[in-house]
Amino acid sequence: MSDAGETTSDATSTEATGTPVSEPELAAFNELLTTHIPAAGRMGVRAVELRRGYARTELPLEGNGNHIGMLYAGCLFTAAEVLGGALHFSSFDLASCYPVVKDLAIRFLRPARTAVTASVSLPEERITELQAICDAEGKAEFTLETDILDADGTVVAATTGTYQIRQHGR
């Protein structure tokens, strides 16, 4: 947050701009998500769109409800948190670096009683800059903000996360 209380972010809009990854690449990411984060797989969190500079995830209501009939808070958190890895998959050099979340804050705004989606984007110039910093210094840090939307497009939660890309072996 700035001194004026405004949130700053590396993300711009959540509009998809790059070329989408292929269907096999999308399936490969979702398989990696299920394999490396089994809890996310059990929740049914999946990427539904990946482009260079853009990622969108979806979380079903079924199996993720709580005791009062809405989506469980931890599931909403997961749908947003995995966006850092999804964006990494579609935007950064997988052979040279990996993603890490440093922190993620969530604000619950309204009950989520349907499946939800979350998306995030980074401009091309910022991706290039972050990759160059990571290559030179071993890691690069950035902020992602997202709104989690229900099926009607209502914002049910909002997140701000600090992520890093880190070089393998450093």
Describe the structure.
Mean pLDDT is 91; it is low at 1-8. Strand 1 and strand 2 form a beta hairpin. The protein has one domain (23-167): Thiol Ester Dehydrase, Chain A (Roll), CATH 3.10.129.10. The chain contains 5 helices and 6 strands; from the N terminus they run ααββααββαββ. The protein has helices at 23-36, 38-43, 73-81, 83-91, 124-137, and strands at residues 46-51, 54-59, 97-108, 116-121, 139-150, 155-167. 31% of the residues lie in helices and 32% in strands. It has a 6-stranded antiparallel sheet with strand order 1-2-4-5-6-3. The protein is α+β, with helices and mostly antiparallel strands and 170 residues long.
User: What is the assigned CATH homologous superfamily?
Assistant: Hotdog Thioesterase
Mean pLDDT: 91
Q: Over all CA atoms, what is the radius of gyration? A: 16 Å
**What spatial order of strands do you see in the largest sheet?**
1-2-4-5-6-3
List low-pLDDT spans: 1-8
- List how many beta strands DSSP finds: 6
Q: Work out the helix count.
A: 5
CATH architecture type: Roll
Structural class: alpha+beta
Strand share of the residues? 25-35%
CATH class: Alpha Beta
The CATH topology assignment is Thiol Ester Dehydrase, Chain A
Largest sheet: 6 strands, antiparallel
Notable features of this structure?
170 residues; alpha+beta; 6 strands; Thiol Ester Dehydrase, Chain A; 6-stranded antiparallel β-sheet; globular; single chain; 31% helix
